Every structure is written in structure tokens, then in C-alpha cells.
Amino acid sequence: MTDNALATGVVKENLVELLLKKRLMTAEAIERVQSAALTSKTPFSAVATKLGFVTEHEMAVVFAEMLNIEVVRRADFPEGILTIKRLNPHFLRTKKVLPLRIDQQTLALAMADPSDDVAAACFAFASGLPVKRYAVLESELEDFFYKLDAANTEIEESVALSAVDETSITQEDITKLSDLASDAPVIRLVNRLIMEASDLGASDIHFEPESSAFSIRFRIDGLLQKVETLSARWADPVASRIKLMAKLDIAERRVPQDGRIRFTSRGRSIDLRIATFPSLQGESIVIRLLGQQSVQLDLDTLDLSFYGLNALKKALKRPHGIILITGPTGSGKTTTLYASLNAILNPALKIVTVEDPIEYVLEGVSQLQIKPEIDLTYAAALRSILRNDPDIIMIGEIRDRETADIAIRAALTGHLVLSTLHTNTAAGAITRLLDLGVEAFLLASTIELTAAQRLVRKLCPFCKSPRAISETEAEFITAAVNRLAIPDTVYTATGCCHCKGRGYSGRTSIFEAIEIDEMERDIIRSKQDESALIKASRQRGGTSLWQHGIEKALAGETSLEEVLRVVEWRKV
């Protein structure tokens, strides 16, 4: 006999009512899911999550409330599958059920669809025990089963990858579900790797063919980590699959190609940028994952330096001028610019962006993606934008003289311009613009703030451990923060189950900013070197990247080793 013995029709009705009551799904979405579930013979809950209308966690919580049961997570799973006579292990994967344990002559079951009375009855019959149901995330069950049989790729479960548009017809849903159920191992492999990277918070996936192997690496918290090495025979099928998803030419392997895939999965919006590169050993592919809902675009939560944050907020209140954020690729510049736009977003202002690519979508902002293949460059787009009466313009990157000149002209004609530049320091941005041919007197008249940013990994709060400071470290700590007493210890990375042995979890910003006032404008006009700008900023109370990094290391947020990895040691 099973618990929660409710008729399937009643349960489904209650599930729909709860989803509507909690405003997790619209009536239109419910109708679409019901139609797709009936046609594909897939449980309603699975279709709703796979098509991205509701997250797996939200669905599990709804089941728990509806059936008065608990939700279990991956940490509660047993090490292996509990053996039950007369029950085929394949049945577990088909029904998305995992026996957890036997407690007081009761069989505990983790179920992706705990309303499935048929599955529960089968387990009760096979074990001869009453069952107790628990709700579980389907992806965590899939991951558990996959890792038990990692050597056999045939058992991988695929995950939905295509975007769902609420105005599309039901047949498109059926097509997605059909692709999801495909037996092609390459489809399941690519889908699993993308979702695994998303779950781990990776920013990029690198598919790299080698002479006798096919390597897959994830970039997590800024560093690449090898996650799998497959047979070289996987290289061509994987490349073809990814190019097909991105609507690229699968027959063209001689030249690089760029593409884009937008989709929802498990209720999350994910944007994939694809870049192929023909290498000596085969076609190398990089997928960049842009989770548009995972970053909080709030300046106060970006961990900028106290001085830098105040200087940036002050510059954003100016009616016109140029604000520059500098740093290498992946240093968080664009996120800071978006957070800046979000801070000044106002219905009374016309805000326009020109980007490549558009990484976040901001409501109330007109965003334009440049397309060099049709001669829609930064310069061409900006010339058009200036005729459309904007108040604030964000330029993804100033790359050449023409773009720099248009940015200067926009600032001179009463616009606030925000942009990024690839230099190592805040002062280096001035030198770079002068090298591009911008006149010094024009630059001095328009620049309001220049800043530099880096991202350092944060120490895992569960396993970071103290260690003594060496004499060399004491020397550069004193040079950076000589106003503070040097502590006896700092924290270092150790590694635990919470951070998957890395010792770090997440990243934080280190930031420097140079406010441009009359003293700095005179320095720019006279084309003095960067040291003069840096000295003027220090007199004003500004801090360097190095100082901000050391302050975070002393506070236990990151390690000295991590600061040294991303910032050059400079005496202040």
C-alpha cells in the first residue's frame, strides 16, 4: 500500500491549481504543457520544467505542499542504488525514482513526480513494504544515475536546450520534447556538458581536439579546469552538433564561425555564444554561457572599493562626459557598466547601448547589437544613434580612432557616455586614447572618470584556513596598507566538498578609480605620464587595484596568492 493515494486526475488538477495560485504558470502555459504532455506521453511536471515554464525546485516545492511531503536534495542520496528484488534497475531511470533507504519497515523513495501512484505501487509490490514519497529535482536524479555509470555514455539523460516563446505553437513544444528523447549519444553528451557547466557556474566551455583525445574544459571562477577527456572520434560529431544548434555551416571547417543559441532550461534563461576555430588537430569550439538572470545589477553589491564606488556614483550624476572602465577580458567591466546604467535608469532619460555582444537585457534601454558582416560597426551605429536624441550612450568597447572621436563628440554635445577600454590600469586609459589620436585638450574637457577592475576568486567560507605571513608578504602588505597594523595571519585556500576541492567559491571585484578634476585635466592637457595622474589620485584619497586587493586578502575574502595572480605588485 502506498501513501498519498490520490487519483491521478485529482492530483493533476491540484497541481494545476497550485501552479496558477502561486502564479508560477499562466493559463496559456498550462494549456500548452497539458497538450505537449498528452502528445509526448510525458508527465505534466517534467514537460513544464523541460520547457522552462517553471524551475525544478519550484515544481518540487509545489509537489511537497500538495502532497504534504518533504523535498530531498543530492546530499541525501545513498552512495549506490538500493537493491530491490523483482525490480529492473532500468525502471528507476525510466520513472525517475530512487530508493533512499528502509526506515522502520518503510521504503523511502525520491521521486521526480511524487504524484505517480503507479510507480509507487510498483515499488511497494516489489519490496513488500509501504513507501514514503519525497519530492526531488529531476536533474539531480539524472546526475546521480549518470555518475554511477559514467563509463557508459549510452545511459545519459538529455536535457531541453531550446528557447520557449510563449506565443509559439504547440507543435514546436512537441519537437523539443522529441529531440530531448533522442537516442543519439552526441546530443545527450553536448546537452549534459552544457547543463553541467551551467550548474557549476562556469563562464565558458572549451572543446579541444588533440592528436589522440578530445578534451573538455570549463572556465570556473576565471580559471580553466579539465572535466573530461574523450576519444578523438567524438570531436567531429560534437562540433557538428554544436554548429547545428547555432545554425552555422556544418560543412565549413576552414574558417572561424560565430553563432548564438538562446534557450531556457530548468526555468533559467541561458544565452550561449559559440566561437569555432580551425586548429591543427581539428575544430576547436568555445561556448560562452551568459546567464541573464544570475547577476544582480546593483552597484552596491559588486564589492567595489569604497573610494571607487563613491567616485563612480558621483560621475554618473554628471549631465555629460565620458566614464571609462578598463581591464582585460573577463574582468567584470561590462557588468559594472550595466549596473551603472541600472542605477541611473529613469523614464525621463533616453538610454541607448551599442554592444558586441548584448550580455544583459535591461528593460527601458534601447540596445543595439553590432554586425560587422553588414557594415554595422560601432562607428556606424553611433553615428545613427546621435541622430536619435539619446541622453546616455553606452559603448561596448572603444576599439579605434573613429569610435573614440564619436564618443568625444557625443560628450561635447551634452551626452553622458559610458564605455570600456582594454588597458591594465585606470591611468593607462588616458594614454591609450591619446595613442589612438584623440586630441589631449578634447580628452581633458570630456573625461569624468577612468577606472580599472579585476575579478579575484573568493575563499570558500567553509574551509579557508589561517597561515602565518612571511617576511616578503609583510613587506608588500606594509607598502599597500601602511595605515593599518599587519596581522599575524592571513587565510589560504584548503578545499572541501562545498567548493568541490577548489578552495574557492565565487569571485569578487577589486577596483580602482581616478576622478578627473581640474588638476587631472591639466595633467592630461600637458600630456604628462601616467605616474602624475596616479599621484594626483592618491592625494585625493584614491586607492589602487593592489591596495584594494590586499585589503580584501586581510579581511579574509580572498588569498594573497589570488591577488598576486591578477595584479602586479606595485609600491604605493
Strand content: 15-25%
Radius of gyration computed on alpha carbons: 28 Å
The outline comes out as globular
Total number of helices: 21
Oligomeric grouping of the chains: single chain
Number of E strands: 19
**Helix share bin:** 25-40%
The profile of the biggest β sheet is: 7 strands, mixed
The whole-number mean of residue pLDDT values reads 83
Low-confidence stretches: 4-10, 151-169
Strand order, largest beta sheet:
13-12-14-15-11-16-19
Derived structural class: alpha/beta
Distance between the termini: 74 Å
Verbal overview:
38% of the residues lie in helices and 23% in strands. With 572 residues, it is of the alpha/beta class. The strands form four sheets. The protein has a seven-stranded mixed β-sheet with strand order 13-12-14-15-11-16-19, with helices on both faces. The protein has a six-stranded antiparallel β-sheet with strand order 7-6-5-10-9-8, covered by helices on one side. Strands 1-4-3-2 form a four-stranded mixed β-sheet. β9 and β10 (282-291) form a beta hairpin. It is globular. Residues 4-10 and 151-169 have low confidence and may be disordered.
